[in-house]
Write a structure and sequence with these properties.
Layout: H1 5-8, E1 9-10, E2 21-22, H2 29-36, H3 41-47, H4 53-68
Antiparallel strand pairs: 1-2
């Protein structure tokens, strides 16, 4: 599963200003991660029916990898 996010997360300058999104949607990784602060996975899937659990897992793995390669001041 570690590299599966690469098959689900895309960054296209013509979609959502180039923010990383779930492939085939306009749902950004940032939206998924932020919503998980207040919603359960099931609630998030209900709010965004175009997503599946694997999309959410991929978004979290992507966000985790990004946090390891970003300096925080």
């Amino acid at each position: 599963m570690t590299n599966d996010w690469r098959e689900r997360i895309v960054s296209d300058p013509t979609i959502h200003h180039g923010e990383p999104c779930i492939k085939g949607t306009r749902v950004s990784v940032a939206v998924i991660v932020a919503n998980l602060a207040e919603l359960s996975v099931d609630q998030l899937l209900e709010a965004y029916p175009q997503l599946v659990k694997e999309d959410i897992k991929s978004a979290l793995l992507f966000a985790s990898e990004c946090s390891h390669s970003t300096l925080v001041a």
